[in-house]
Specification:
It is built from 11 helices and 20 strands. It is α/β, with parallel strands linked by helices. The chain has 3 domains: 231 residues, 3-Layer(aba) Sandwich (Beta-lactamase), CATH 3.40.710; 107 residues, D-Ala-D-Ala carboxypeptidase C, peptidase S13 (D-tyrosyl-trna(Tyr) Deacylase, Chain: A, 3-Layer(bba) Sandwich); 76 residues, no CATH class. The protein is globular, with a radius of gyration of 27 Å.
Length: 482
């Protein structure tokens, strides 16, 4: 009996010790690794403003979770939610259609009526793809349009998007709003070519929108390039109703070589009209009328159709280069296709929440405003995002999802990061940044060939100084938690 009692006491002590070790291990998971903590300290970022979760994709729970349940603004890392939802709900092979209809009689090569373009929300209807649609119209025998160019943009519900609302920079391409007929991201690409010999700078816009006039007062000067755009001034003035006169002035160092300045100058309707008119006339076509909104003829068959690249390709471009307007287009498509109603942000948010719940990934803290992450209101916890990454890795769309993320040191937004370090080429990671936000999330293949999902979010005024901490997280994960 004495031996039994002693054994019972020993077993109880072992159980208590095991429980203490388990609790200690749980507490240890809430302590940042020293290298990461030191990098944050040097950047002046308190640990209370940070969330970090690292989990082996084959494990049931994270190996490291620090502030994992705290809702934070993820910036562009929110695109991961939009991407995974799109690949599963739309499918990797889904395509967007832009259709052209004839509203009138075609006699020979003359249309006695209107040409109607119906947008299908294509996120990647670039100038090259739009040219293919124009060429298709000419190839089918159409030359002269005696009516108007009519734009059917009902695939997305009209919204009162204010491009200046986010940061007071309405001309920046990242502030372009979504539209069912988005052409070339509604952006004009101005190419600046300085000539040191003549002291002149050539400015070439692409596309050459029909209503755009460019006044060039820029001169080439000597000196280091530096922030070349800071020395230039752009003045915009209305011209002939829907037209714009863009006047550039200032000096540009010839040492800069060729540079590009992307600007969103027009409304969606005027931009589509201007680009179409330019391409149509270049191809030998004639357009007699103007532009207006309207609807495609009910029951009519399209005269010509342009199909976008697949959703897998679109999501790849969206994530590699963190394209906000593409993300908005994809996000609105979720409700347009799933609910068969005009795409709207609140509808798409409900679709995403329902999809997450159906996968057992409930995220009550999730606030997804427009799918792009360019939002002050967006919120998600690092723990929820890590669960989504693990679920995506176990999904049938895993290859397309992982391949859409920037490869550290090789492409996208991470092509210049950690080039000569051991983690180079071993991590597919999406980045996110706002004035007070820095985030990374994705996958790291560690030195032992184990894959880890990781999420690291900083919300603080000093977030911009947190790159060294991000690099420390990637190194620590690659070293498999050493």
């Amino acid at each position: 009996m004495l031996r039994i009692a002693r054994c019972a006491r020993a077993c109880a002590q072992l159980a208590l010790a095991a429980a203490a070790l388990t609790a200690q291990a749980g507490r240890a998971a809430e302590v940042l690794p020293p290298a990461i903590a030191a990098a944050l300290a040097r950047a002046g970022i308190p640990q209370s403003a940070v969330a970090l979760v690292v989990q082996d994709v084959d494990a049931a729970k994270p190996a490291l979770s620090f502030n994992g349940a705290q809702p934070l603004n993820p910036a562009s890392v929110m695109k991961l939610v939009t991407s995974f939802a799109a690949l599963e709900l739309l499918g990797p092979t889904f395509t967007w259609r832009t259709e052209a209809y004839l509203a009138g009689a075609l006699a020979g090569d003359v249309l006695d009526g209107d040409l109607v373009l119906r947008g299908g929300g294509d996120p990647r209807l670039t100038i090259e793809h739009f040219w293919l649609l124009v060429r298709g119209l000419r190839a089918r025998g159409l030359r002269e349009i005696r009516g108007d160019l009519v734009l059917d943009r009902a695939y997305f519900e009209p919204n009162d998007h204010d491009p200046a609302r986010f940061d007071g920079e309405p001309l920046r391409p990242y502030n372009v709003g979504a539209d069912a007929l988005l052409v070339n991201y509604k952006t004009v690409r101005f190419q600046f070519v300085p000539d040191a010999a003549t002291k002149a700078v050539t400015i070439a816009p692409e596309p050459r929108v029909a209503q755009l006039e460019v006044a060039n007062g820029v001169r080439a000067v000597e000196g280091a390039c530096g922030d070349w755009r800071a020395a230039l001034k752009l003045d915009l003035q209305p011209k002939n109703g829907a037209g714009v006169r863009a006047s550039f002035s200032g000096a540009m160092p010839a040492s800069c070589g060729e540079r590009v300045w992307n600007v969103a100058l027009f409304s969606h309707r005027d931009f589509v009209y201007g680009v179409f008119r330019q391409l149509w006339e270049e191809s030998g076509g004639v357009l007699r009328g103007r532009v207006r909104d309207g609807a495609a003829p009910a029951g009519a068959r399209p005269f010509a159709v342009h199909e976008s690249p697949s959703a897998a390709e679109v999501v790849r471009d969206m994530n590699k280069f963190s394209n906000n307007v593409m993300a908005r287009q994809v996000f609105l498509t979720l409700s347009a296709e799933t609910l068969k109603l005009p795409g709207r942000y609140d509808r798409s948010a409900r679709v995403v929440q329902s999809w997450l719940a159906g996968r057992g990934l409930e995220m009550p803290e999730l606030v997804i405003e427009n799918g792009s992450g360019l939002s002050r209101a967006g919120r998600i916890s690092a723990g929820s995002l890590a669960r989504l990454l693990v679920a995506a890795y176990r999904s049938s769309v895993m290859p397309e999802f992982v391949a859409s993320l920037p490869l550290v040191a090789y492409d996208g937004t991470l092509r210049k990061r950690m080039k000569f370090e051991s983690v180079a080429g071993q991590a597919h990671v999406k980045t996110g940044s706002l004035s007070d936000v820095r985030a990374i999330a994705g996958y790291v293949l560690d030195r032992n060939a184990r894959r880890h999902a990781l999420v690291f979010i900083v919300n603080h005024a000093n977030a911009g100084a947190g790159q060294a901490a991000q690099d420390a997280v990637l190194r620590w994960t690659y070293e498999s938690g050493r």
